[in-house]
Amino acid sequence: MKVIEDMQHWRDVRRKIGGDVGFVPTMGALHKGHASLLHCSVENNDVSVMSIYVNPTQFNDPADLQNYPSTMKQDLQLAESIGVDYVILPSDHDIYPDGFRYQVIENEFSRQLCGVNRAGHFTGVLTVVMKLLNMVKPRRAYFGKKDYQQYVLIKDMCAAFCMDVEIVGCETVRERDGLAMSSRNKLLSEPARAVAHKFKQALSCAPAKISADQTLADQKMADQLVADRLAAYGFQVDYVETRKHRRFGAIVVEGRNGQVRLIDNVELESKVIGGDQ
Ligand code: AMP
User: Fold this and answer.
1) Phi and psi at residue 225, to the nearest 5°
2) What is the pLDDT of residue 219?
3) All structural domains of the chain
4) Could you confirm whether 31 is annotated as catalytic?
5) Cα gap 5→87, rounded to integer Å
6) pLDDT in tens, 65-109
7) What is the pLDDT of residue 87?
8) Low-confidence ranges of the chain (pLDDT < 50)
9) Local structure of residue 174 (DSSP, 8 states)
10) What pLDDT, on a 0 to 100 scale, did the predictor assign at position 277?
C-alpha cells in the first residue's frame, strides 16, 4: 500500500493506473463502518484508493473540528490489511487552492433534515467530494447509508454534473447494541454511551409500515411519537422526520469534551399494500 501526501505526485501516479478504480473518501478515525466500504471497493475494483481528509468547510462548530478524533497509524494498518492500494492525504491547500471561492450548492434536499441547523454543511461536503472525485477519477465511489442524506446528495450531484462515476451506497454497520458506528462515538461520555443504543431503538419503534392509506398526518404523528420517546430518554432532539421511505433522526448528547451530535436513519417497510409515496 502506498501512502501519498504530495498531490502533484499522486497526479503522476494516477495517470499510470489502469483498470477500474474504487474510491472511499473518509475523515479518518476508521471503524468497521469504513472497513465495510473498503472491503466493497477492494472486492469490486482492480485498484482501491482511500483518502483521509478532515474537511474544515463541513464543520459548523470550530470545537467539533478541533475535537475530531485522529488515529492515523491504526487507520493505515486497517486499510492495508483490507487490501487498499493507495491512501492519499491531501492538505487544506491541495483541496482549497481557491480559498473556497468556488462551491457546490444544492438548494433543496440539503436544506432539510441535517441542513436545517447546519447551514452550509452540505455545501462543504459536496464541494470536497467533487474535488476528491476529480483528483481520484474513480469508476466507483463508496458512501455509507448511515449518512443517507449525504449519500443521496452526492449521488444526485454526480448525475446533475454528468460525472462518470458510480456512487455506491453501503449498509450501516452497527455496534452489537444497535448504535450506528461513528468516529464521534469515541467522544461520548460513559453515561451517554450507555443509553445511545436507544436512539436506533426509538427510530424503529413507531409504525414502520408505510401503507397506501397512510396520510402525511399519520407519518408526522409517528415521527412525533419517536421524538417524544427520545426526549423521554433524556436526549436533546434535533429532528425526527420521514423522507424517502426512511425515518431520519438527529440528537445531541453529552460528550467527554462538550456535546456530541449523533445521526441515524432506518428504512421503513414500504409498499405494504401496494402503497408507495
Ligand atoms: P466519515 O469518515 O465519517 O466522513 O465517513 C466516511 C464514509 O464512511 C462515509 O461515506 C460514511 O457514510 C461512511 N460511514 C461512516 N459510518 C458508517 C457506518 N456505521 N456504516 C457504514 N458506513 C459508514
Assistant:
1) -60, -45
2) 85
3) 2-170 (3.40.50.620), 183-271 (3.30.1300.10)
4) no
5) 9
6) 998 999 999 999 999 999 999 999 999 999 999 999 999 999 999
7) 99
8) 271-277
9) B
10) 35
CB proximity list for 242: less than 8 A, separation 6 or greater = 210, 219, 222, 223, 248, 268
- Answer whether 144 contacts ligand 1 (Cβ < 6 A): yes
3-class DSSP state of 26: strand
Q: In the block, which residue shows the cell 494516477?
A: 14
Q: Where are the alpha helices (DSSP H) in 91-246?
A: 92-95, 114-117, 121-136, 148-160, 190-195, 198-203, 216-232
- Decide: 157 and 130 in contact? Cβ < 8 Å: yes
Q: Report the nearest-CA residue for atom 17 of ligand 1.
A: 33
pLDDT of amino acid 274: 33
- Which pLDDT does position 269 carry in this prediction? 77
Beta-strand ranges (E) seen in the chain are: 2-4, 21-26, 47-52, 86-88, 140-144, 166-170, 236-243, 246-255, 258-267
Q: Output the pLDDT for position 270.
A: 58
Q: What is the pLDDT of residue 212?
A: 58
The best mutation among 26, 30, 71 to test binding of ligand 1, ranked by most ligand atoms within 8 Å of the C-beta, falls on: 26
| Ligand 1 neighbour 110 (Cβ under 6 A) | no
